[in-house]
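Duplicate of #3305? Posting structure anyway:
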């Protein structure tokens, strides 16, 4: 009877996960990005022209909205990892996001939710207080909903591929390529189709299309429920980390055992947070091992440990894993910082250049961003279909190269993007000087805007290497019970990088006011090329820092259970869980 039940469970498990789940899962992220990109690309126009908000107020509203949307994934991830699970966090987040999108669409359709159109030369009536409150409430709902979607979709999707295959060499790396390709494609559609409809057809339809799409994606995601592998949440990861810290501090004077095998382990206690395998002891950050020193005073009468005095080796290694990840996580921040000028200074460059495709039509300056998206999509396709198969022949690795190598390549290519930007700026200013246009900031310099394509395209190529590898690193090296939180760290790096970009520009502007004013309003008289060279230098330092961190990085060793013989495999991971594992059987009997 037990054998029949076991076979039924195994058959049910075989029907779950895998590629069949991808359409249901990725649809959520696609429409999230589709809606977000469609809103953000042209929302400043909606706020100023439809709600008649002053430019500064509209800009601050969108800045606050963007900052909130980047912070809420941390909260959503902690909820998912602590008690709700990824499926329900995505579902509830999607519904909340849907409500926000419906509200925004209603504000564009119903006359009572926006001020009347401007008439003649009369002063435009600004949106009333309650109309603004309705807008802010709508934006807040989308920010909260996004916090439940973004950190969980990537971890939930990767789980379907990595957990559906008992082979630890499963090629889950391809999911991250697919994830970023889907994001890029939806962003490209939003920057073209949605923005065109908003400008030429109407805001009701322009906001309504992504709203309808999001509704369909929520329905599709819920319909796929029977197909998903759903890991049981293992309790608050922050509390577990705090317990290790407190226990280690309390035993800071305790004598460490000479044999690490004498440290406390409890497979039953760790069952919910080590479904795919237990973390094994490492010889780094050994101060925290004190939390696993066992004494008679550390146990309850039930035989369970007092968790604020005694932690298992697995829980200690969870904390070590997070600490080891942080230096490489920081690397991603400067990449975003260096790319933030693509949406500011590069657009100013484009506005000053010849953007005509024909005598009666010129390219909008902001449209140049499309070249970054297109180059990223093409690079992802090339990487997955051509680069990996070729590299696999030389390295023997399923993924071709490890994600740390891929990340390093992305950092190197990103440097070239800013070199190209600096060189083009030197050329643009030289042409302006030749035509005597240095003191005419609103004049069109006779140099094609397509000179900017290299810096946009190279950035897109770098993003295809760097961002994918960064996300994959965070997923693979984070503890199993904290993968949603690790995915949220990716978005936190994006948010921090943008804020760092603002800080860098402010500092450069303050320090150069009396030294030529690099970033003055008239960029023809400014020294924008100096700024690009400065960012290039910072990126070189970032690359050197990364190479040092990657050289000393220790990958998490994992003991993977094998259900068929109830043994375990010790993963001696030389280059990460990126399909680069060497396996050696070890006994899996309880410690």
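Output from current build:
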């Amino acid at each position: 009877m037990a054998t029949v039940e076991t076979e039924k469970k195994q058959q049910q498990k075989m029907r779950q996960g895998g590629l069949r789940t991808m359409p249901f899962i990725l649809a959520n992220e696609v429409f999230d990005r589709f809606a977000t990109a469609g809103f953000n690309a042209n929302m400043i126009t909606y706020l100023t022209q439809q709600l008649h908000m002053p430019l500064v107020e509209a800009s601050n509203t969108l800045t606050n909205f963007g900052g909130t949307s980047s912070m809420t994934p941390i909260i959503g991830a902690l909820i998912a990892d602590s008690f709700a699970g990824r499926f329900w966090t995505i579902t509830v987040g999607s519904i909340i996001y849907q409500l926000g999108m419906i509200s925004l669409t209603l504000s564009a359709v119903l006359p009572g939710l926006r001020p009347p159109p401007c008439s003649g030369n009369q002063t435009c009536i600004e949106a009333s207080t309650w109309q603004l409150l309705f807008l802010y409430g709508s934006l807040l709902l989308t920010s909260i909903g996004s916090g439940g979607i973004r950190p969980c979709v990537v971890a939930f999707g990767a789980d379907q591929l990595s957990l559906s295959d008992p082979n630890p060499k499963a090629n889950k790396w391809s999911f991250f390529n697919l994830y970023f390709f889907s994001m890029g494609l939806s962003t490209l559609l939003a920057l073209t189709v949605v923005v065109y409809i908003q400008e030429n057809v109407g805001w009701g339809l322009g906001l309504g299309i992504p709203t309808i799409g999001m509704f369909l994606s929520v329905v599709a995601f819920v319909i796929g429920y029977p197909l998903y592998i759903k890991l049981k949440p293992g309790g608050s990861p922050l509390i577990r980390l705090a317990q290790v810290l407190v226990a280690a501090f309390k035993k800071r004077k305790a004598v460490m055992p000479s044999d690490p095998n004498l440290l406390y382990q409890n497979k039953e206690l760790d069952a919910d947070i080590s479904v795919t395998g237990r973390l094994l002891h490492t010889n780094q950050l050994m101060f925290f091992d004190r939390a696993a020193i066992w004494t008679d005073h550390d146990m309850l009468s039930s035989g369970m440990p007092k968790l604020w005095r005694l932690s298992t080796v697995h829980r200690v290694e969870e904390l070590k894993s997070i600490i080891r990840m942080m230096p490489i996580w920081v690397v991603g921040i400067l990449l975003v910082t260096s790319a933030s000028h693509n949406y500011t200074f590069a657009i100013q460059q484009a506005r000053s250049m010849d953007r005509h495709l024909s005598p009666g039509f010129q390219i909008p300056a902001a449209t140049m961003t499309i070249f970054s998206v297109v180059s990223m999509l093409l690079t992802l396709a090339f990487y997955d279909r051509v680069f990996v198969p070729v590299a696999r022949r030389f390295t023997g690795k399923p993924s071709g190269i490890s994600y740390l190598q891929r990340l390093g390549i992305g950092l190197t290519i990103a440097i070239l993007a800013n070199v190209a930007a600096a060189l083009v700026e030197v050329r643009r200013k030289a042409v302006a000087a030749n035509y005597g246009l240095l003191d005419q900031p609103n004049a069109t310099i006779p140099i094609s805007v397509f000179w900017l394509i290299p810096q946009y395209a190279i950035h897109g190529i770098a993003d295809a290497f760097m961002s994918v590898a960064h996300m994959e690193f965070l997923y693979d090296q984070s503890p199993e019970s904290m993968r949603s939180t690790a995915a949220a760290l990716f978005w936190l790096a994006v948010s921090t990088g943008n804020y760092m970009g603002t800080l860098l520009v402010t500092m450069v502007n303050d320090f150069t006011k009396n030294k030529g004013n690099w970033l003055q309003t008239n960029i023809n008289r400014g020294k924008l090329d100096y700024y690009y060279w400065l960012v290039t230098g910072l990126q070189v330092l970032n690359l050197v820092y990364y190479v040092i961190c990657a050289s000393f990085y220790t990958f998490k060793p994992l003991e993977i259970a094998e259900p068929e013989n109830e043994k375990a495999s010790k993963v001696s991971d030389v280059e990460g869980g990126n399909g680069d594992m060497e396996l050696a059987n070890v006994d899996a009997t309880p410690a």
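Confirmed duplicate; merging threads. Residues 237-319 form one domain. DSSP finds 15 helices and eight strands in the chain.
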